[in-house]
Write a structure and sequence with these properties.
493 residues, mainly alpha, two-stranded antiparallel sheet, 6 strands, Ankyrin_rpt-contain_sf, toxin, SOCS_box, target membrane, secreted
Length: 493
């Protein structure tokens, strides 16, 4: 979840809004302090002449910068009500154009929020600030990083309320497009779908690679939204780094795009230089793995076309084929078939410190899947998977320790196929196994205690010679043997 954008978009009612609504609801009273009465007159839109006479009658010229409610001054009320005449009267009477309420909002902040460019111009002519990122000698410092107000920048107020012309005016007159907040820079707080605000900031020099509190760049955040195709184009055109990595989990924009499932964004990134392959580390899967997890065949094919290594191996999860077989993913059969067709090794051995740390793909599949599918087993065999009923300590391809996971009542055909395909049996281990049921042992003994037929032995030897890969079915079909024998060799019968 994009917490920075979520928090940045939230804004409670301002003090001036709250006070004006309360005043309009309760009506005017004559038993208040003069400043309070004067504020109420401004709220009720009394004329400039009336306001001037009231100030003179009550002798308030020396009190125009005094707080009324939650730090609000008369100038705040005049600006909020868009009373330019009253605002000029107050400014000409030495009202401070940079006065802040208790939350740090100045009259310029209110104008930015409301889109009152005409009032901002007047306030600036009287010395009002529009940028608070620089700390002057007489300023009080707020926040981290420090700024001259506890409130957001006027530019942020304009952008948040989609006052783009006001934002442009502020940027033209010195607003800092790279203002820093606790959650990140100005551009980090913009929703990627708010293209107008993003383009405006970039046009005036915003850093396209700025990182937010979570270590994400604007491009990463855009890639997490499937509708943000235009934002992705825009950010890249302004120099966004397509290979920048998130600080916490080291994902790139391509990782996020694959997780989002938008092929167009994935293509844009790759065509602009995004890397599809990375050195595999323990907790840093490549984008290809996320395409597998999402069950997205189109993106998977595209990444493989773009150079992703189908046989890259992680010591934690194994190869992409391991992942496809061990996770509950959509389109599992299509994903497995795609990987095998594109050259995935059905006999991949994952090693750590020179020893196997994972079973071969078919072994991990049987270990993790309660109800293995016959069509997936056949796909693996068709592309050269070898079946060895031994322990992995004796043979890298050994899967004997997981055979007990096959439910003979629900998946008898899977057990039958694997027994038929096995190259060898470790009879002593079968005898000693505490995991294998008597029914499992009976099936294994029946096959293990009789010699292979000449046909079976020939199939085993031929498959060893052919190896593995998408070329296996093609090679078998060029041998000139009868179709029935082709199907026999490929376990298609």
């Amino acid at each position: 979840m994009d917490f920075s954008a979520l928090i940045a978009s939230y804004r409670p009612p301002s003090a001036v809004e709250e006070d004006i609504l309360e005043c309009l609801h309760r009506g005017q009273s004559h038993f208040k302090q003069p400043l309070r009465q004067l504020a109420d007159h401004i709220i009720h839109r009394q004329s400039v002449e009336f306001i001037k006479e009231f100030i003179e009658e009550e002798d308030l010229f020396g009190c125009l910068n005094e707080p009324i409610h939650k730090g609000l001054r008369l100038l705040h009320y005049a600006v909020y009500q868009d009373e330019m005449g009253i605002m000029l009267l107050l400014l000409d009477s030495d009202a401070d154009p940079n006065v802040m309420d208790d939350l740090g909002f100045t009259p310029v902040h209110i104008c930015a929020e409301k889109g009152y460019i005409h009032l901002i111009e007047i306030l600036m002519s009287y010395g009002a600030r529009i940028c608070f990122t620089e700390i002057y000698p007489n300023d009080q410092s707020f926040g981290d990083p420090p700024r001259a107000t506890a409130a957001d920048e006027p530019l942020r107020m304009a952008i948040r309320h989609c006052e783009h012309e006001t934002a442009r005016f502020l940027l033209e007159h010195g607003a800092n497009c790279n203002a820093m907040y606790y959650l990140g820079q100005e551009i980090n707080l913009v929703n990627p779908l708010d293209l107008a605000s993003m383009e405006l900031l970039l046009l005036y020099g915003a850093d396209a690679n700025a990182r937010d509190l979570q270590g994400l760049t604007p491009l990463m955040k855009a890639c997490r939204i499937s509708q943000a195709v235009e934002a992705v184009h825009l950010l890249i055109s302004y120099g966004a780094d397509v290979n920048a990595k998130a600080l916490e989990d080291e994902k790139t924009s391509l990782h996020y795009a694959v997780l989002t499932g938008n092929l167009e964004i994935v293509q844009i990134l790759v065509f602009n230089g995004a890397k599809v392959s990375f050195p595999l580390e323990r907790t840093r899967p490549p984008p290809l793995y996320y395409a597998v997890l999402r069950g997205n065949v189109e993106i998977l094919d595209f990444l493989l076309d773009s150079g992703a290594d189908v046989n890259a191996v992680s010591t934690v999860v194994g190869s992409a084929l391991h992942l496809a077989l061990t996770e509950r993913i959509a389109n599992q059969v299509e994903i497995v078939e795609t990987l095998l067709r594109r050259g995935a090794n059905p006999n991949a051995i994952t090693q750590s410190d020179g020893r196997p740390c994972l079973k071969p793909p078919i072994g991990e599949y049987l270990q993790c899947c309660e109800h293995p599918r016959l069509e997936i087993i056949k796909l693996l065999l068709k592309h050269g998977a070898r079946i060895v009923f031994d322990i992995q300590k004796n043979h890298d391809f050994g899967i004997l320790k997981v055979i007990h996971r096959i439910h003979l009542g629900l998946n008898p055909e899977v057990m039958t196929l694997l027994v038929e395909a096995s190259e060898t049996f470790n009879i002593p281990f079968i005898e000693q196994s505490r995991h294998l049921s008597e029914y499992h042992k009976e099936i294994l003994y029946k096959k293990a205690l009789q010699p292979f037929s000449l046909l079976q032995a020939a199939r085993i030897q031929l498959r060893r010679t052919l190896g593995w890969g998408p070329s296996v079915p093609e090679t078998v079909r060029t041998l000139g043997i009868p179709r029935c024998l082709e199907r026999y060799v490929l376990f298609e019968e």
